C-alpha cells in the first residue's frame, strides 16, 4: 500500500496568561506502547506562529497538530479483515506517531534516534476559530456533521510536542554516519519509519513518524497481507534513504548507504520472517 503523507500542522508556541488546552482524549489502551502526556499540558499556552521552511520559528517547542483521521482511507482495503478500532489505532497518523515514540521511549532512544518528543496533548475545538483567524488554516478534515454540534461537544485537536530544531539544513556530510546508525537502531526496536525523505530530517534528525509501522500492526500481519509485499514495504525505507542521500547532493565520501546487497534483501524477503527483516542492518561503509 502506498505511503500517505501525514496530515498535520506545525505550530510554534510561547506561554501566555490564556489557558487553552485540555487533555481528555486518551490513546487506545489495547494497542500499546503509549506516549505520555506532555508534562506542561496544563500550562497557559498560546500558539504564535505556523512553521514552514520560510518560517522556522524562534521558540523552544513545536506542536504537531494533526488533522482528523477518516477511517474510510483504509477501511476499503482492510474493513472485511480487521476491526475498525484496530485500523484506527494502527493507521491514524496521530496514533502511529504515539506508538513509534512509545517504542523509542521504551528503548531509551528519545532524543537520540530522532528529534526529542515531550509527549502528547489535546487542544479544544474552541481553538479552531483562533487557528483560522491567526494562521488562515481551515482544512482540518473535521467530520462535517460535527459543525452542527455546539463547539464544546466537538472532537478536540490532537498534538504531539517536540523540540524545535533550528538547523535549517536537512543533513550534512558529518551527519550521515549517525543517520544510518539511527535508522539501524529504529529497525531493531522495531520501528519502521517508511517516510524517508529529505524534508523529514532536520540537522540529521528524523522529525516525523506519522506513517510509521510498529509491531503488532495490521500492515505487518501475514494473515492479512502477502508476505512478499510486507517484506518489500519494510525494506523500501533502506532504498529510499540511499536515494535521498544521492539526490540531496550532500557529499558522501565514504559511500555510506543503508541498503544491503540487493540479492541478500531478496533472499531475506523470501523467508517472510518479519523479525529477521527488522534486523537487516544498514551498511556503514562501502566494501
Q: If you had to describe this structure to a student in words, what would you say it looks like?
A:
- With 287 residues, this protein is α+β, with helices and mostly antiparallel strands.
- Strand 6 and strand 7 (205-206) form a beta hairpin.
- The chain has eight helices and seven strands.
- The strands form two sheets. The chain has a five-stranded antiparallel beta sheet, with helices on one face.
- It starts with 7 loop residues before the first strand and ends in a 9-residue tail after the last helix.
How many beta-strand segments?
Answer: 7
**What is the number of helices?**
8
Query: What share of residues are in beta strands?
Result: 5-15%
- Main β-sheet description: 5 strands, antiparallel
What is the ordering of alpha helices and beta strands? Answer: EEEHHHEHEHEEHHH
- Coarse structural class: alpha+beta
What is the 3D shape?
globular
What would the average pLDDT be, to the nearest integer?
Answer: 81
Helix proportion of residues, in percent?
A: 25-40%
Briefly characterize the structure.
It is built from 8 helices and 7 strands, in the order βββαααβαβαββααα. With 287 residues, it is of the alpha+beta class. The strands form 2 sheets. Strands 2-1-3-5-4 form a 5-stranded antiparallel sheet, with helices on one face. The protein has a two-stranded antiparallel sheet with strand order 6-7.
